[in-house]
Amino acid sequence: MEAKVNKRAAIAIVLVLALGASAAGCGSGSSAEGPRGEAPIETEAPEATAGEAGGEAAAGEGGVPSEAESAATGDIPDNQAFLTYTDKSAGYSIRYPEGWARTGNGNDVTFKEKANVVHVVVHPGAARTAAGEKTTTTRRSAPDPVTGKSLPLTVDTYEFAKGGKVAVLELSTPVGVDNVDAYRMISESFRWR
Hints:
Radius of gyration: 24 Å
CATH class of the largest domain: Alpha Beta
Number of helices: 4
Distance between the termini: 80 Å
CATH topology of the largest domain: Protein Transport Mog1p, Chain A
Number of strands: 9
Mean pLDDT: 74
Helix content: 10-25%
Low-confidence stretches: 2-6, 12-68
Strand order of the largest sheet: 3-4-5-8-7-6
Structural class: alpha+beta
CATH superfamily of the largest domain: Mog1/PsbP, alpha/beta/alpha sandwich
Number of domains: 2
CATH architecture of the largest domain: 3-Layer(aba) Sandwich
């Protein structure tokens, strides 16, 4: 009886340690070594049922990035709140994701989070494309100030003309990150005032 209790206690300790390591290293992948380079402890553990396995599917399973991986690369979450920015001097308003850093004002405004960028430039002239028509290009991001790395970006450009001036809206996101719905909402929110 005592051996059975000790075996159950050992299994419980291993499970607690495994769950703790899993939570601490969430999204970091797997390794043959445990914390601090230790070899993993091999024990018999009861099989998890589908309900117990819950959100512990392997990251990237089936080629689909996990929620944590998507957020790390700049995926705008479905539950993202948006605010309206109005610039009276340039004469427009646009929605942008809450919490993104804003730089500039008037005729040149940028909202940024990770490698995602919403950039609006207003200048005199006429649009080169039909109102709200999208053109898509690719380019590299500015180098990260810490790592020095730059990312390939998909850049969707829209032009909106009114009264002898044109607003150029650029929506940039890392290649492979799906911000289509959020960026569509942002582009459709542009209004001249």
